[in-house]
Amino acid sequence: MIQNRICSLFGIKYPIIQAGMVWCSGWKLASAVSNAGGLGLIGAGSMHPDTLREHIKKCKSATKNPFGVNVPLMYPQIEEIMGIIMEEKVPVVFTSAGNPKTWTSKLKEAGIKVAHVVSSSKFALKSVEAGVDAIVAEGFEAGGHNGREETTTLTLIPQVRKSVDIPLIAAGGISSGESMAAVFALGAEGVQVGTRFALTEESSASDEFKQKCITLNEGDTIVSLKKLTPVRLIKNDFYQQVKEMEDSGSSADELREFLGRGRSKRGIFEGDLKNGELEIGQIASDIKQITSAAQVVEDMITRYNITIETLSGLRI
């Protein structure tokens, strides 16, 4: 059993956090990860307020262990979302895509532990100033929305660790015990895992999306839409259209109009593999089967321990 500041902070057995991903992270996935000893997160970014409340209540019924909610701070109904989270006494909130000063103090006054996702040391320091309990440093390998700095996880983690002394969680390209050991060697105390949990039985993503992802090869994802918010996508027909528009000099407004609404829902949740926005991390090309969330946690811990033992015999 790994016992460190992340485990103590969130009251969990293993320092493995399931990312709060749009259209993947409902109550079934969050509760399964929490029941397995990690920290499951409900992804509020793709939920209406009433839907979020329903998922929180179902998660409470499905697990007695701590769980949390991930909230993009640019969410249009943020006041209502945060109100529901505090009313329902959710123990943990992970915030992203916005200024952590806006909500951190209010959440902490309500007895909620707060972590914030960053893509640079600069924003890690701002998060510490805002009073967060932990930081998630997410590298450029990650799926979904990425930082503009394009810093990889193995470059980002040691620099953030030098900049701040609060509990640090690594994210981006982590799906195995071996990668968990690697980021721990660089100063992380926990890992946030998205893609691997997105491709589990309990994920609310469509079967079509999951099956597509486990057939990907290296280089089949790419960061696009940099004029709006950078996002890592599978190279499908939708991506090719976006690329053509970007190459021809389309403006941000033109790209925004082309996207319209519900593109990620169309792709990830409804399974439109041609015209949907298919967000997934680079590490998808290393995942070749769908398993349960509990199996993911068990495999990661087993491989982590084997890796640590193996490395201990390689002293020079």
3D architecture notes:
Helices cover 42% and strands 15% of the residues. It is an alpha/beta fold. It has a domain at 5-204: Aldolase class I (TIM Barrel, Alpha-Beta Barrel), CATH 3.20.20.70. Strands 1-9-8-6-5-4-3-2 form an eight-stranded parallel β-sheet. Helix 8 (177-185) links the parallel strand 8 (168-171) and strand 9 (190-193). Helix 3 runs parallel beside helix 4. The model has no long low-confidence stretch (mean pLDDT 95).
The oligomerization state is: single chain
Quote the average pLDDT: 95
User: How many H/I helices?
Assistant: 14
Major beta sheet, strand line-up:
1-9-8-6-5-4-3-2
CATH class bucket of the domain at 5-204: Alpha Beta
Helix content: 40-55%
Strand content: 5-15%
> How does the helix and strand content classify structurally?
alpha/beta
The CATH superfamily title of the domain at 5-204: Aldolase class I
General shape: globular
Please name the CATH architecture of the domain at 5-204: Alpha-Beta Barrel
Count of strand segments: 11
Low-confidence stretches: none
The run of helices and strands is: HEHEHEHEHEHEEHEHEHHEEHHHH
> What value does the Rg take, in angstroms?
18 Å
Tell me the span between the first and last alpha carbons. 27 Å
| CATH fold title of the domain at 5-204 | TIM Barrel
Largest sheet features: 8 strands, parallel
